[in-house]
Amino acid sequence: MVTIIERTVSQTAALVRPALIDCDLHNELHGDVWALVPYLPERWRRHVETFGVRSPSGGFYPRFMDHRADARPPSGRRAGSDVDFVREDYLDRCRVAYAILNPLSPAASQTNLELGAALATACNDWQVAEWLDREPRLRASIAVAIEAPDLAVAEIRRRARDTRFVQVLFTGRPQEPMGRRKYWPIYEACEDLGLKVASHAFGSYGNPVTGAGWPSFYLEDHVGPAQAMQANIISLVTEGVFERFPGLQVISVENGFAWLPSLCWRLDAAWSLLRDEVPHLSLAPSEYVHRHVWATTQPMEEPHHPHQFAEMLDHLGPLVDRIVFASDYPHWDADQPDEAFPVRLGVEQARKFYYANAATLYGFDSKSC
Amino acid sequence: MARHVVARSGEIPEGGRTIVNIGGLPIGIFNIDGEYFAILNRCPHQGAPLCEGHLWPGLLVSSEPGDYTNRAEVPIISCIWHGWEFDLRTGQSVCDPQRLRVRNYDVKVEAAGTDGFNLHATTYAVEELGGVIVVDLDRRPSTGEAAKLSHLLGARSNGGNEATDREMVP
Amino acid sequence: MTGNHDSETSHGTMARARTLVDADVHAVVPSTQSLFPYLSAHWRDHVTNTLMKGVVETAYPRFAPTTSRTGLDAPNGPPAGSSLEALQRDVLDCDEVEYAILCCTYQVDSLHNPDAAVAFSSAANDWLAAEWLDQDPRLRAGIVVPVHYPELAAREIDRVGGHPGFVQANLPARTTFPLGSRINSPIWDAIARNDLVAAIHFGGAPGTPPTPSGWSSYYLEDYAGMAHVVQSQLVSLITEGTLEAHPGVKVAVLEAGFTWIGPFLWRFDKEWRNLRRLVPWVRRPPSAYLRDHFRFTIQPLDAPDRNDHLLQAIDQIGSEHVLMYSSDYPHRHASDPDRLLNIVPAQLADRIRADNAKALYGLP
Ligand code: FES
Q1: Are B117 and B1 in contact (CB under 8 A)?
Q2: Which homologous superfamily is A19-362 in?
Q3: Engineering a disulfide at C141: which of A49, A258, A315, C102 sits with its beta carbon 3.0 to 4.6 angstroms away?
Q4: What is the ipTM of this complex?
C-alpha cells in the first residue's frame, strides 16, 4: 500500500537551467511488436502472427528492474507508451522544449531482413500517428533495418521529407563495426538528406557486449555499452567514414561520455605510429571525433570526487560543446534533469548542456525559454 | 514543535507504508512486522521519491560467488529510480553505509491524547482507538544497530587511499 | 606530442640513479624450430612433415611500426624481442634495471587442438626457463597457458609454477569467455594455489571478434581497441567475484593504457550501486577492487598533450600503488615513459619505478 500525499519535485537546478532538449526519450511499444502489427501490411501481419519476430539468439540479459515505476501511466499501459502521460509526467513537469524519440523496436535486429524493413516502416508510421502528430515538441529517429542497407536507405528517403525525423537509429552493436563499408550507403543517404546518425546503446546482431566473449550478469551487460561505443567510434574514424562523408554527424546515445578523452588520446598515439596503414586519413583521429561525434549525457558518469567531473569536462576540449543532455525517460536508469550533473553548472554551461549544444546539432532555434 | 502525529496505529498495515508531508518535508512511514520506520522521501542520489521504491524481504549478502543469502533482520528499501538500497532502520545506504544515508526520523506509537505533539490534522483525524503514530523531526531513532550493515556485507575495506568525503548526503 | 614534459623538475634525473623494475618486456619465440629442444618427437615430426607449423601469431604484425623499435626489425634477422643479448644491451644494462618481467605472448590460444596447445605452451615455458630465466638473475616471467582449455591451463600452471622465475600466468586480453567467467575457475584456482600474479596482456586469438560489433578492418583498430577489451575483462573479474573467491590474487594489466581508469571506474561504481543485488558477492565498489587487486604498466602512456591533464588522469586512479614502470621493449610507443616519471611527485615516481612492482611480485 502506497499513499502518496505529495510528490517530491526538485526545485534546485530548475531555476538555473533553460527549458531543455532531451536527446533520448523513449516511446515504448505497448505490447512490444503487437503495437506495430496494425501498421504492418497483410503479408507481414500474418508472418508475425504465425512465426513471431526473431533476432540472433543468446544475447538476452533479463533486465533487473522494469521501467521506472512512477512513469507508469494511470491507464495501466506500459511506461512511456502513452503520449498524454509522457507529456504531463515528463515534458511539462521537467520543462522540455524538444525531445528526440528513440523507438527501441525489433526492426534493426531481425534475422529476416525483409521483415526488419517492414517493421521499420511500421514503426515510423506508428511514430507519426501516435507521437509526432500528437505532440509538437517531439522529434524522432528513423527506425531502419540497418543490416539491409539498401532497404534502410529506401526507408530513410521515404521519411526525409518529414522534418520531424532528425536522425537514423543504429543499435549499439551492429553485425559489423559501424565504420565498415557495408553501412556506407546509409551514411551517404544521411549526408545527402541532412540527417544525423544516432547509435543507441544495447541491441545486438549476435555479437557479445565485449570483445572477449559473453559475460554472465546483467550488470556486465549494462556497463558494456561504453566499451561497445568506443569500438564503433574507432571503426568510424579508422575506416575514413568522415573523410568520405564530411557532412556526417554521429551521436552516441546512452553510452555516457567520460571515456571520450582517453579514447582520443589512445587513438592519436596509435595513429602517430600506424598512420601508414590508414593513408586515407588526413587528420589525427581526435580531429575527426571533434568534428563529427556527439554524445548524450546519460548515464552520467558520477565520480566519487565531483571536482574530477570538472577535470573531465576540461579534458574533453572542444568536445565539451558536443555533449548534449539526455534523460532516457522512462527507463529505470534515466537521469533526472535537474539532479543529473554531479557538479553545480554555471549558467552558461547549463545553457549549453541542456539546450544550446543540441540546438546547434539539430538546427533548432538557438534561443530557449 | 517537532513531534507530529501522522497516522492512527493500525492505519498502516504490516508491510505497508504511507507518505506524509510535514511542513514541507515529505516523509515515508513504514510498518515492517509491527515496527515503524520513518525516512525522508527524497533519495540522496538524484532526489527520487525514495519511499515509493521496492521493499525487499531483507539485505541480500553472499559468502562467495553463487551464494545468495537473505538477512531478513535488515529491512531494505530500494529507490524507485536507480535501485540504490537503504537500511530502513538507520537510513544507511548499502553501497556506502558510512558516508551516504537518507535522513531518518524517530517514530513510535503512543497513546492517543498524549500531550506534546502537533496533530497533523490536515491529513489525519486522531481518534481514541488504539494509539497514534508520532514522528519526531528532531530525533533520529537510536542507532544501536548501525554498525551492523557493513559487518553483514562483509566488506574488508573500501580500498586504497581514496578520500572519504561524500557530497551526496542530503 | 606537444607537452612541456621536459620543463618542470629534476625528479626524473634524480630517480634515474635509483632502482628500476621494468614490469613489461617481451620475450619473442623466434621460430617454431627454436622450440624443438622442448617439444616431443611427435610434435617435432608434426611440424616438420605436415602443414601444422606451430602457433599463428597475429597480435603484433612483424614489421608494424609499433612492434619494434628502429634497428631491431631487420627483414632477414630474428624478430625483435627474441634475443636475450639485445634485451640485456638495450634495457637491462643500459637502464640499470634491477628486475624485468618477461611477457611471452606466444599465441597458443590460436591452436584449437588441445594437445597441441598444451605441447606448445609447455615448450614455450621450458624455453623461457632455460634460455632466459636461468641465464640472467634479473629476469622473471609469466607462464604461457592454453587459456582456452582452463583445466589444461591449470595443469600447465601447476607444472611450472614452482620455478622461482615464474611470477605470473599470462592471460590474453581477448578470450572466448571473459576471464572472470566461472568457466575459467580452474585457471584462477591454479594461480592462487601457486601464489602467482595473473597478467592480462595485449592480444589473444580466440577466433571470436575483438569488438562488440564484430571484426574490424585495421590493425590500428585492434591496437587502440585493446583498451576497451581490457576494460571488459576488468568488469568481468570484479563482477563475477573472481577476487572475492581468491582474495590473495593480484592482476597485472600490461600494455593497455591507464589514462582511462578514472572515468571507467565512475561508470562501473555507479552501475554497482544500481545493480548490486544481482551480484551480492561484490561487497565493495568496483573501484576498491581495482585499487586493491589491479596493477597497470605505464607503456603505452596514451597521454594527453597537457601535463596537467596527465597528472589529473593519474590522480583519478585514486591510489599511488597502481602504476608500474614498463618499457614494453621491443615495442615502440608514441611517448617516452620518462615523460610521466618527470612530472609526478618524487615519492610516486619511486613507487612507479620500482616499489609497486616489487610489492606485487615479492621481489627483494
Ligand atoms: S535517485 Fe534514488 S537511486 Fe538514483
Answers
A1: yes
A2: Metal-dependent hydrolases (3.20.20.140)
A3: C102
A4: 0.95
